[in-house]
Amino acid sequence: MNSVKGRGAARLASAILASGLAIGGTVALAGPAAADEASQNQGGVTAMLGRITAGGGAVVQDRRKTGDVMAGLFEMKVDGGGTLQTYCIDILTNTVGGAKYKETGWSESSLHNNANAGKIRWILQHSYPQVNDLTALAKAAGADKLDANTAATGTQVAIWRYSDNVKVDAKSPAAEKLADYLTKSAENVEEPKASLSLTPPAVSGKSGQRIGPVTVHTNAGSVAVAPTGDAAARKVQVVDKAGKPLTSTANGGELYFDVPAGTPDGSASLKATAATKVPVGRAFIGDHTRTQTMILAGSSESTVSATATATWATKGAIPALTARKSCEKGGVEITADNKGDQPFTFELDGKKHTLRPGGSETTLVKVGEDQAYKITVTGPNGFSKTFSGILDCRTAETGTTGGSGATGGSGGPSASPSAPAGTTGGSTGSTTGGDLANTGSSSATPVIAGVAIALMVVGGGAVFLLRRKNTAGQ
């Protein structure tokens, strides 16, 4: 996927600039002042993008883009241990070397409105590397012979036809036969479940009570759970519904925070961890980085984790705040729950809200595609909770409105990513021309570093930059 350097650099630079955006408000909260950068990820795997381990050439001949691309299977290293194998589902977007990815559901990725998402998962289940009998796979596809490279190429090409709605053909005749076979045979299957998640990721209540429940969703046989930070010093325990202390649980388990009476108002967290294989077909999106969206093709036993937080007080408003990206609605949904005995008054996105005791309210904050956002809710006692990320809900070719964004050059595909984001390393060498995104290559890192320095100079200034993608033919 080879693109001109300026296009990927501009997109990533705009994302970084937009990260200065803050949507402020006030929150009435019983208890001491607090400041928190809250996680939106409900759990699962985080991993770093590696190189293409198997693949070959392909050609895009589409009304929007034309050129040679590298089609293949990526390797990713899991934080905490393990490896993943992934294919790309965003052909026109550059990868960023060293980018961190997080596991997510289809609703938070470009698959959210893709009627063929289930067919992509079928392809993953019925081709390489899930099917490693390449002789049998070649026979089914009507190909003379397949090896790892041609099998990976054909599989990626078939996936792109459904993920990006693009005309793409493998250069190898054997790989092309496999791609055609998979494309014609694919059937819609259901979305895979998360490897591990906790819902809701934030709860609240009065001290002297068990606060929860937080429900565990996992495909692992057993999940270890433990309080984190200073929870132990406060004698806060993780327990079941009956109040029995827990150190492990399983799918469907309900967790509670046992906060002793008289504990000073505050908050504590728990962490759940497990070792399991991530289900084939899970999506992976950049963690605070605009980069190609990936889809899981294979997993070793990997470390998965999730966290949840409880807030408590003796009286007053006791809120719990959570957030989730909604690609369908084009923004971030902020949910506030109030388990206190007084109304919870807060301001969000320029509007004032009052939530009754025991009430719950969800507010959608609109965010532009490819826009880095920072949504902050603040309160009168110095309370502050911030949710940040990048809304990446569309493939480049469907999310743009005209013009290729190309300015010349020859960004060619590469089997390994460029230097990690935030360094001054350049992109890997190019071998072909065209105007498609670089698979495993990005030329934007010097721009990223420069913009980061500029933001440091600006300091507390808030910057808003909304940039829409441009695609020819629309």
Q: What report would you give on this structure?
A:
Residues 1-30 form the signal peptide. Residues 413-422 have a biased composition (Low complexity). Residues 189-209, 398-438 are annotated as: Disordered. This is TQXA domain-containing protein. The protein contains six helices and 24 strands. The model is unreliable at 1-35 and 398-474 (pLDDT under 50). The chain has helices spanning 5-18, 117-125, 134-141, 148-163, 173-185, 445-458, and strands at 35-38, 46-61, 66-78, 83-88, 100-104, 168-170, 196-199, 202-206, 210-218, 223-228, 237-239, 248-249, 254-258, 266-276, 283-286, 294-299, 302-313, 319-326, 331-338, 344-348, 351-355, 360-366, 372-378, 384-390. The longest helix is centred in the first third of the chain and has 16 residues, at 148-163. It is an alpha+beta fold and 474 residues long. The protein starts with a helix and ends in a 16-residue tail after the last helix. A hairpin with a 4-residue loop joins β2 (46-61) and β3 (66-78). The strands form six sheets. A six-stranded antiparallel beta barrel has the order 2-3-4-16-15-5. It has a five-stranded mixed beta sheet with strand order 8-17-14-10-12, with no helix packed on it. α2 packs antiparallel against α4, α3 crosses α5 and α4 crosses α5.
